Amino acid sequence: MAQERPDDTAVYPCAGNNREDKYQRIEQIQQRSMQRLTPARWLIILVGILVSLSVLLNYSTVHRFVQPVEENPSVYLLYASTGSMGQLLNTKQIDAFLIWEPVVSNAELSGIGKCIAVPSDLPPPGKWNDQAINVLVLRNDFIKNNPNTSALFSALTTAAINRTREDPALAENITAAWVYGKNPILTPVGSLQPLDVEKHAFANIVFTANADPPVSGIVQSIIVKTPDSTYNPLSMMDPAVARRGEQYLTNASVPVADPGVPGLGIGYNPSTDNYAPLYVMVKDSAYFCNRYGFCVVPDDLETSRPVSCTLSVRGETFAHVNLIPGQSGGGIMTTIGQNALDGAFVGSVPAEQQIGLGNPASIIQSINTGGSGLVVGNSAPCNNWTGFVKWVKVRSATGSPVVIATVQSSIQEDMVREAFAYENISVKFYGTDFKAAYP
Known about the structure:
Layout: H1 8-11, H2 19-36, H3 39-65, E1 74-79, H4 82-90, E2 96-100, H5 103-110, E3 113-117, E4 134-139, H6 140-145, H7 147-166, H8 168-180, E5 185-187, E6 190-192, H9 194-202, E7 205-207, H10 217-223, H11 239-249, E8 263-268, H12 276-283, H13 285-292, E9 294-298, E10 308-313, E11 316-325, H14 329-337, E12 343-347, H15 348-356, E13 361-370, E14 372-377, H16 385-397, E15 403-406, H17 411-422, E16 426-429
Parallel strand pairs: 1-15, 1-16, 2-15, 8-11, 8-12
Antiparallel strand pairs: 2-14, 3-14, 4-12, 4-13, 5-6, 7-13, 9-10, 10-11
Helix pairs in contact: 5-9, 7-8, 7-11, 7-12, 8-9, 8-12, 10-15, 14-15
């Protein structure tokens, strides 16, 4: 016999007489719930959803793309040749350059840029006021084997420095012909007369035989890595050579020829007028012969840039001098270290760097101070170092750092890096995120 089904109403007091009644009640409950979700409540729910999505998206973006904020502003440093700097600035591939004369004057007179600072303007305050920018270097074994010839060449260098200071107009003419020749100088925006450039450049150079070599952060950072080494620029000098040379100039001593007739190979960079005393020594040789009784006479009196010369004393040959052009101070110093040159007119920092690393040579005396300049484009919003620093900081903050060019391992690079270190501005090599520490 079949069992009777229990009555739903007995089990579920709220249930209706049939299943349809039960579902109708459920629908009524749902409808009342929906009616309570007013437009304002729907808006609150939607906002909550959007906020949640935004937080998730921002979290992902921050961790994937945001780079850490740098504590210091930064600039980019680009190594370039002197011949390319004007063009790089004119085409806005760089924002500034720091280099030697006559590149600075060339840029100003051609309208490519403006010089806003010279070495004495750069920090630390007073650092570059009386520091040797270029020096005379001789190889140690040449000094030992030819002490009189070494002293005589130092004496003529000092005499030529004095002559350059006494008659700058003469020196400007000689230097213009030596560096540029007779033809106009072609620039990216026109041409210039060589003499005009030299007149402008000489105002930025102080020729002196008495400046001390600078303390270089670049050299220090290299030498300290060598075991048992110390860095002292004054210890790299041989002052006895210059002292004996002074005796020749004052007639306190008479030059005596060294045994044999030595050859004296002197390297130099012919594209700079910082070596004007060398050019005056050679091209105005008659003056030195008449005044001092010793001189360096070019073998070919007609050429504007002599190579072969003769060092003579009272008409007698003391040495054969060859003036060998070079492109960089580091390269010239390397040639001295290879015994292919006996000396050079060269930048003080390349000289210190090589001597500190074991190049068997000594600094004899200075040639000049000054002679360099910081050049920016004409539209740059600065006219001095202080304004330049402000511009650098603004550009760095906007993510477009200033690009400044100079020559690698030069004293100008030392100036750039020390000045920015003083201002707490990081220097990065162009195209990289690598920061160049100083020293």
